[in-house]
Structure formats: structure tokens, C-alpha cells
Design goal:
By secondary structure, this protein is of the alpha/beta class. It has 2 domains: about 110 residues, Rossmann fold (3-Layer(aba) Sandwich); about 180 residues, NAD(P)-binding Rossmann-like Domain (Rossmann fold, 3-Layer(aba) Sandwich). It is about 35% helix and about 15% strand. The protein is built from 12 helices and 12 strands. The strands form 2 sheets. A 7-stranded parallel beta sheet has the order 8-7-6-9-10-11-12, with helices on both faces. The chain has a 5-stranded parallel beta sheet with strand order 2-1-3-4-5. Helix 8 packs parallel to helix 9. The chain is elongated. The chain starts with 6 loop residues before the first strand and ends in a 17-residue tail after the last helix. The model has no long low-confidence stretch (mean pLDDT about 95). It binds (2R)-2,3-dihydroxypropanoic acid. The site of (2R)-2,3-dihydroxypropanoic acid has 6 residues, from loops.
């Protein structure tokens, strides 16, 4: 690894467009997975990582010249950002470019969950409409609902705007109220759950949010309650959710994210009152291309100007600190 181009390591799989664009400006090294034990002596020149997935502390420690980790995704829970910050390594993510797509998917998943549209389509495809008659009326509807947003960042706000257009009431819970909004604010998640019948989770997967949607929150949501999660699976206590769905503590759930992806608990798969998606909220060609471009553009900006385009708040560095 001795070219004059900065060397970028790509551990594991990443969007094809990242791999197509990187070689214009960088030397690329691939690693089967983000495992420090796979790092070889000639990777001493690695100055950046482009990643869709994990970057553990050990991998950072194994790369002495590492300056930047460009994460494919707005959520960067796979990257040990605390460790990166302690070493002066800048971490970037892909905000904004996926906001509207994820908000669209969230509303689609909400309606699928309430109106059982995936099941209705299966009914038609299986020839049951002609054979057995009309698909059963959906017990749930968006009409008359009050939706609580757990998280009101860029994506939460985009979901709220869409819900306003659907004519439903919106409330929210975040650590502190946001200025200039008329949505009702609840200082606790359980308080929000008790005040609404539909809870949409769109917070980052951090230690502070881990399993915060627990049995108490689900019970507060109530027997007409519906939970939608388009944030991170770690935020929901999955065992408590399964029990709540099985026992009628809540009425239904729509999930795009899970605690141990790509593995989905059998107990969830067996439930009729859930709508399940394989983490596709941002997964259109146009949006994933925009995310790929932002990964590459962050690396290019860093190495040409010393300033990343979208550093995460924990690593606001403009040059290598240590
Ligand atoms: C993100 O950007 O964090 C999404 O979950 C990826 O689709």
C-alpha cells in the first residue's frame, strides 16, 4: 500500500456506488469484516474507513493512521463513537439525504399495520377474493388516532408533518421541548404513551434509549395501542413487546428494525397483528445513492479541506487531534 492516494479501508459489505466512486480519489483496501485480527502490517497507511455496519474500538486501535470513519447511514450506533472521539478520529454520518424517504416509509408502515394492507394483498394474490369473498374489515384505522412521536429530530419532524396532513393529532417526547412547535410535549415517554394510542419510535440507538420502550410504556399505550419502530431495534424491549402483543396489552405493531438483525424472533413472526419489514426505511435506489455519495464526499472533503461535511456531534474535529 504505497500509492500517494489516501488509503481507505472498507470492512464488510457496503453500497456498490461507494465502491465505484472511491477509486477516483483513494486507494481502497477491503477486509472481510470489521475484525482487528484481520488487519495486516501493510494496512499501517490506512487513513480512513468507509463502513456500513460496525467499527469496534479494536479496529480503530489496529490502524494507527486512522483519521476518519465515514458511516453509511444516519444512525451510527455500530461505530464506537466514544472511542473515536477519545482518539481524535472524526466520524461522519448521512443525515438529511434520507429524511423524507424514511418518513414516507414510516407512514406507509403505520397504515399497513392499521389497515392490514399486506395481508389484504396476499388474500387477493392467493385467489381468495374470488374463492372466499371480501377480505375482512380491518379492526384498526388511522381515523381518530393520536400519534405520539418518540424522537423529534429531522426524521421525526418529517413524519409529524405528514401526519398533520392525514388529519391526526400529534404529540411528542424528547429530552427537552423543541421551540416553535404546537405539538403537545410530554417530558416522559410513559406520559406520552398514556396520552396517545399510537407510538412512533424514531430515536437513535444509544445506551440512553436502550429498551426504553418497555412493559410499562406498552401498558400505558393501552389495548387500542399501536407501536411503530423505524429507529433502532435496541430501543424496544422485544420480549416485553411480544408479550404485550400476545396478551392484548396493545393492539398491534409495525417494525422496520429489530434487536438482532437480520434475525427476527419466531414469536414475532407468529403474530397476526404485526407488520414486519427488513430494515428498508431508506432502501430506495435514489436515497441509497445519495447516502453513498455523502459517504464518499465526506472522505473527499476531509482529505482536501481538512473538514468533513457531516461530522457527528461527538466528533466535531477539523483536523487530527491526537
Ligand atoms: C440509517 O441510516 O441509520 C438507516 O437505519 C439505514 O437505513
Amino acid at each position: 500500500m504505497s500509492s500517494s492516494l489516501p488509503c481507505i479501508l472498507v470492512p464488510g459489505k457496503i453500497n456498490e456506488r461507494v465502491l465505484q466512486r472511491l477509486p477516483d480519489t483513494f486507494e481502497i483496501v477491503r477486509l472481510e469484516r470489521a475484525d482487528p485480527d484481520l488487519v495486516t502490517a501493510d494496512m499501517v497507511d490506512v487513513r480512513g474507513i468507509a463502513v456500513s455496519g460496525r467499527v469496534p474500538a479494536g479496529l480503530m486501535d489496529a490502524l494507527p493512521g486512522l483519521e476518519i470513519i465515514a458511516n453509511f447511514g444516519v444512525g451510527y450506533d455500530g461505530v464506537d463513537v466514544k472511542h473515536a472521539a477519545s482518539k481524535g478520529i472524526v466520524v461522519t454520518n448521512t443525515p438529511d439525504v434520507l429524511t423524507e424517504e424514511v418518513a414516507d416509509t414510516a407512514v406507509g408502515l403505520l397504515i399497513n399495520t392499521l389497515r392490514q394492507l399486506p395481508q389484504a394483498e396476499q388474500w387477493l394474490r392467493q385467489g381468495r377474493w374470488a374463492r372466499d369473498g371480501a377480505f375482512a374489515l380491518s379492526p384498526l384505522s388511522l381515523r381518530g388516532r393520536t400519534v405520539g412521536l418518540y424522537g423529534l429530530g429531522r426524521i421525526g419532524l418529517a413524519i409529524a408533518k405528514r401526519l398533520e396532513a392525514f388529519g391526526v393529532s400529534v404529540a411528542y417526547h424528547t429530552r427537552s421541548p423543541r421551540d416553535g412547535l404546537t405539538y403537545a410535549y410530554y417530558p416522559t415517554l410513559e406520559g406520552l404513551a398514556a396520552a396517545v394510542d399510537t407510538l412512533v419510535v424514531i430515536v437513535p440507538g444509544t445506551e440512553a434509549t436502550r429498551k426504553t420502550v418497555n412493559a410499562g410504556v406498552l401498558s400505558a399505550l393501552g389495548s387500542n395501542g399501536v407501536l411503530i419502530n423505524v429507529g433502532r431495534g435496541s430501543t424496544v424491549d422485544e420480549a416485553a413487546l411480544v408479550a404485550a402483543l400476545q396478551n392484548g396489552v396493545i393492539a398491534g405493531a409495525g417494525l422496520d428494525v429489530f434487536d438482532n438483525e437480520p434475525h427476527v424472533p419466531d414469536a414475532l413472526l407468529a403474530l397476526p397483528n404485526v407488520s414486519l419489514l427488513p430494515h428498508v426505511a431508506s432502501a430506495s435506489v435514489v436515497t441509497r445513492n445519495a447516502m453513498a455519495d455523502l459517504v464518499v464526499d465526506n472522505l473527499k472533503a476531509w482529505f482536501s479541506t481538512g473538514k468533513a461535511l457531516t461530522p457527528v456531534p461527538e466528533t466535531p474535529f477539523t483536523q487530527r487531534a491526537g
